[in-house]
């Protein structure tokens, strides 16, 4: 494997060799990772003016400032490396596989008399993990089967040989009801315990045949020795194992070890079902949604999903069944598109799951959209607004006894926070604690700016406060000549009363109404945003005041230090040379002497 870096205009000099290419933008951020059988041909296709690439790809190409490649031995190696790089870096133009769930595993611990129990955290040094399981129910079915077949302990005792020899433990209820053979009191040796555990591991790996053969052999042995009770117990366990296998069998037992992966897609998304089959039994089934970034083909999407899912579920499948043909064979990936028989039925089953998942997602999205539209439509009705309030802005002030006065504005689009549109304001024209004048200032500044930039106005303005703050905001709108162009209301915290300009009496919206909850959420968000900013400003001002109290440190010097270090703590951790680089050696010495004296203050 070999790595190199190239500029975009040097793509023609790339080797005709399998590998992975990485695109970086002007800020040297990784924006795309791709694989190729021939790096030269694949990368050149992005820069060929006659290639007819789509608009999204052209936009990505315009961002490319640097190309880095890694040579590998085969296209399959490139596929695996591409998957690892995408999973690690999440480049913005690569296919996004939407799957943020944490799946359960069964852990076989690394200790004396090992245990098997469920967990969602993978810490390799703790032992061997089996899974992940696509559902808790599937995992519990396997765990219940193992606990019925074998006597594996469930306690958390440290069963070190010397502790057992010292008689530190007593058998518990699990021993008395036959679920454990009492290794804690030395009633079972570790060799016998590990023998059972070895067969449990085969079941966890999906190899039920080995466990069945073991029980048959032991049953015949006990029957020949006339130990019929022991033989009967083994027969019951064998029946249990065969019943479990029959319940999970969905194809011919001759189908030993394969993966099935099918895809259905629309313009923006793709929906993939992945299944693992061992010895004719379905042991894993998983649906995932993929978000298209560059108008990728179904083949590209399916390969991406397949490699990631095989990696996630630790697949060792001999072959893969797909419903989409691959244009090129990939060494190391044995792909089949069956036309008849049991394998064709597996494709149909997987495809049915993918189609159902797509339908389910569309229904859920429609319900969410309906709910969102319903709430803002209800708000329009409750407030008698001329238009649907799909753009709402809310203002709040924050100060403590007039110190460090600030204000905030939050913006909600279609009932959701538009965080990029949030704004902080330092109060510039008001002296002392005057919430009314502060509100007038920030509302005036906000909409003067929107007018100058010729941007659209909100469909509803919300003022956090009662009639006084609302009147001040109205004055600002009148001075700008925009009063009446957009509805404006005030919401008083105490009784959740809604005030309109010029009305003496407030209106009350039903306390259980979704529209009132939306207004409360917007108001609370504006308050949170203002308070957070106020704390930050107050902390900075306190730091600056401390600094200017030091002999030789004036406001300009304090501003430099404040801008660089942000806090006394960070300043105290700085070296004299660092501080001297900002304010000079003489002032740095005085400053650090003061910091040293005031460390415990």
Automatic annotation (TrEMBL):
Compartment(s) of residence: Cytoplasm
InterPro entries per the UniProt record, alphabetical: GIY-YIG_endonuc, GIY-YIG_endonuc_sf, GIY-YIG_UvrC_Cho, RuvA_2-like, UVR_dom_sf, UvrABC_protein_C, UvrC, UvrC_RNase_H_dom
Domain UvrC family homology region profile: 264-477
Keywords of the record: Cytoplasm, DNA damage, DNA excision, DNA repair, Excision nuclease, SOS response
Main location: cytoplasm
Keyword GTP-binding applies: no
Pfam entry (one): GIY-YIG
SUPFAM superfamilies: C-terminal UvrC-binding domain of UvrB, GIY-YIG endonuclease, RuvA domain 2-like
Domain GIY-YIG, first and last residues per copy: 16-95
PANTHER family: UVRABC SYSTEM PROTEIN C (PTHR30562:SF1), UVRC/OXIDOREDUCTASE (PTHR30562)
Protein family per UniProt: Belongs to the UvrC family.
HAMAP family the record matches: UvrC
Summary of subunit composition and partner proteins: Interacts with UvrB in an incision complex.
Function: The UvrABC repair system catalyzes the recognition and processing of DNA lesions. UvrC both incises the 5' and 3' sides of the lesion. The N-terminal half is responsible for the 3' incision and the C-terminal half is responsible for the 5' incision.
Name of the molecule in the record: UvrABC system protein C
Protein source organism: Algoriphagus halophytocola
Gene from which this protein is expressed: uvrC
């Amino acid at each position: 494997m070999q790595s190199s870096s190239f500029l975009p205009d040097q793509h023609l000099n790339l080797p005709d060799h399998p590998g992975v290419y990485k695109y970086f933008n002007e800020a040297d951020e990784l924006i795309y990772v791709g694989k190729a059988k021939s790096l030269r041909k694949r990368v050149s296709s992005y820069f060929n003016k006659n290639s007819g690439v789509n608009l999204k790809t052209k936009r990505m190409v315009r961002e490319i400032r640097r190309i880095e490649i890694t040579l590998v031995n085969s296209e399959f190696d490139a596929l695996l490396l591409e998957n690892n790089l995408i999973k690690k870096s999440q480049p913005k133009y690569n296919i996004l596989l939407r799957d943020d769930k944490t799946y359960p595993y069964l852990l076989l611990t690394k200790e004396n008399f090992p245990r098997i129990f469920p967990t969602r955290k993978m810490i390799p040094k703790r032992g061997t993990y089996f899974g992940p399981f696509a559902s808790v129910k599937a995992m519990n079915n396997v765990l219940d089967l193992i606990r019925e077949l074998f006597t594996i302990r469930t306690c958390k005792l440290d069963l070190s040989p010397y502790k057992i020899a010292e008689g530190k433990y007593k058998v518990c209820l699990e021993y008395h009801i036959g679920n454990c053979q009492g290794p804690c009191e030395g009633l079972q040796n570790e060799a016998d315990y590990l023998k059972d555990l070895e067969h449990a591991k085969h079941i966890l790996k999906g190899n039920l045949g080995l466990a069945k053969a073991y029980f048959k052999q032991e049953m015949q042995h006990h029957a020949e020795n006339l130990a019929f009770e022991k033989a009967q117990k083994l027969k019951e366990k064998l029946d249990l194992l065969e019943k479990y296998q029959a319940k999970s069998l969905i194809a011919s037992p001759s189908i030993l070890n394969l993966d099935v992966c099918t895809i259905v897609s629309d313009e923006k998304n793709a929906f993939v079902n992945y299944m693992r089959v061992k010895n004719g039994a379905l042991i894993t089934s998983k649906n995932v949604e993929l978000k298209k970034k560059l108008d990728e083909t179904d083949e590209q999407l399916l390969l991406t999903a397949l490699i990631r899912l095989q990696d996630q579920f630790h697949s060792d499948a001999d072959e893969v069944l797909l419903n989409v043909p691959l244009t090129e064979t990939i060494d190391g990936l044995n792909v089949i598109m069956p036309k008849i028989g049991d394998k064709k039925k597996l494709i149909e089953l997987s495809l049915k799951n993918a189609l159902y998942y797509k339908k389910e997602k569309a229904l859920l999205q429609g319900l969410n959209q309906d709910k969102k539209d319903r709430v803002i439509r209800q708000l329009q009705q409750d407030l008698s607004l001329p238009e649907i309030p799909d753009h709402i802005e809310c203002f709040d002030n924050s100060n403590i006894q007039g110190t460090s006065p600030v204000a905030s504005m939050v913006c909600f689009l279609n009932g959701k926070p538009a965080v990029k549109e949030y704004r902080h304001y330092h109060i510039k024209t008001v002296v002392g604690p005057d919430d009314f004048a502060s509100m007038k200032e920030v509302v005036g500044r906000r909409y003067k700016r929107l007018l100058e930039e010729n941007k659209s106005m909100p469909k509803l303005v919300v003022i956090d406060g009662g009639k006084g703050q609302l009147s001040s905001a109205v004055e600002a709108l009148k001075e700008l000549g925009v009063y009446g162009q957009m509805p404006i209301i005030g919401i008083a915290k105490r009784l959740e009363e809604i005030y309109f300009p010029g009305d003496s009496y407030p209106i009350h919206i039903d306390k259980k109404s979704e529209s009132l909850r939306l207004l409360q959420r917007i108001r609370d968000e504006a308050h949170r945003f203002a308070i957070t900013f106020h704390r930050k400003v107050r902390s900075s001002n306190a730091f600056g005041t401390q600094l200017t109290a030091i002999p030789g440190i004036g406001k300009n010097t304090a501003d430099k230090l404040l801008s660089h270090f942000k806090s006394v703590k960070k300043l105290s951790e700085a070296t004299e040379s660092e501080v001297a680089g900002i304010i000079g050696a003489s002032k740095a010495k005085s400053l650090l002497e003061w910091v040293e004296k005031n460390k415990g203050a």
